[in-house]
């Protein structure tokens, strides 16, 4: 039925648009008739729509309260599911943002900002409870030569391998982060320099023996460390870091692959 109606409408439209019948005495009458027909069709559709809505409302009026209540419950449950999903998404995004702002992308270690926060916390604890902790700065030896010989990509892989090796071989409560470039900072809470030196001696060994299938076999890595202890009432953070940096510089000057304690 709809199809027949559509065909007829199309036929009238094409007749009215046909230039051969332009000015034909019946054209004007047909156009007027067609315009009225279209208007009436639009009105019928509007009435049908209103009637559908009315019937729907009537149907709803007659369903019992329990059914209506259950329907509303289902709608609320749906909204809650959407809200839950949205909140999970936000939480994941927040966690990811936090991770990005506090970690180094290449090595996955805490970044400089995070390590500075750890240092401040350690100093705060010293001020409150006394005791001591140690800080070490590590720097890869002859790293520029690795970059120059094998390329930056291999250099990056060497950095990631060293980061992994250092963080795997410290104690569970020690901290290791990327300080920048080819430098790593290590914090040894509640430790004197003897205890920290023993750990660094182990790190010299494991770094020297490091084998990674990601790196060319002929690469042999080593690191130099500057180490210092912090006590209650010691100087401010930047002074401590300056001291450790000086020790590292001395380790480099004295031939690398060693630890200098100040
Ligand atoms: N591949 C790579 N290289 C880096 C990155 N950050 C710093 N470097 C490189 O590390 C090298 C450090 O070079 P230098 O400061 O001369 O130190 P070195 O060659 O290790 O020499 P010593 O420290 O004296 O033993 C430079 O070539 C930097 O470009 C990084 O994220 N990826």
Automatic annotation (TrEMBL):
Catalysed reaction equations from the record: 2 GTP = 3',3'-c-di-GMP + 2 diphosphate
The protein's name in its UniProt record:
diguanylate cyclase
Pfam families membership: GGDEF (PF00990)
Q: NCBIfam families of this UniProt entry?
A: diguan_SiaD, GGDEF
Q: Name one GO molecular function term.
A: diguanylate cyclase activity
Q: What keywords were assigned to this record? A: Nucleotidyltransferase, Transferase
Using the record's annotation, list all stretches that form the GGDEF domain. 131-262
**E.C. number, please?**
2.7.7.65
To which species is this protein native?
A: Crenobacter oryzisoli
């Amino acid at each position: 039925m709809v199809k027949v109606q559509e065909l007829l409408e199309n036929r009238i439209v094409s007749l009215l648009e046909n230039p051969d019948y332009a000015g034909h005495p019946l054209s004007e009458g047909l156009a007027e008739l067609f315009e009225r027909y279209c208007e009436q069709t639009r009105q019928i559709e509007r009435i049908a729509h209103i009637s559908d809505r009315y019937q729907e409302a009537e149907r709803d009026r007659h369903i019992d309260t329990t059914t209506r209540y259950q329907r509303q419950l289902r709608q609320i449950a749906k909204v809650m599911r959407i809200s839950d999903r949205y909140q999970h998404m936000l939480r994941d995004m927040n966690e990811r943002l936090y991770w990005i702002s506090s970690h180094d992308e290449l090595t996955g270690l805490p970044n400089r900002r995070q390590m500075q926060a750890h240092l401040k916390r350690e100093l705060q604890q010293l001020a409150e409870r006394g005791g001591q902790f140690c800080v070490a700065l590590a720097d890869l030896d002859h790293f520029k030569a690795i970059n120059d010989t094998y390329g930056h990509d291999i250099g990056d892989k060497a950095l990631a391998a060293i980061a992994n090796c250092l963080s795997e071989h410290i104690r569970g409560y020690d901290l290791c982060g990327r300080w920048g470039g080819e430098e790593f900072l290590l914090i040894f809470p509640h430790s004197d320099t003897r205890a920290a030196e023993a750990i660094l001696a182990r790190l010299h060994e494991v770094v020297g023996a490091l084998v990674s299938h990601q790196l060319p076999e002929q690469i042999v890595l080593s690191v130099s460390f500057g180490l210092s202890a912090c006590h209650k009432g010691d100087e401010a953070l930047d002074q401590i870091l300056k001291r450790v940096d000086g020790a590292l510089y001395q380790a480099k000057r004295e031939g690398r692959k060693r630890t200098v304690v100040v």
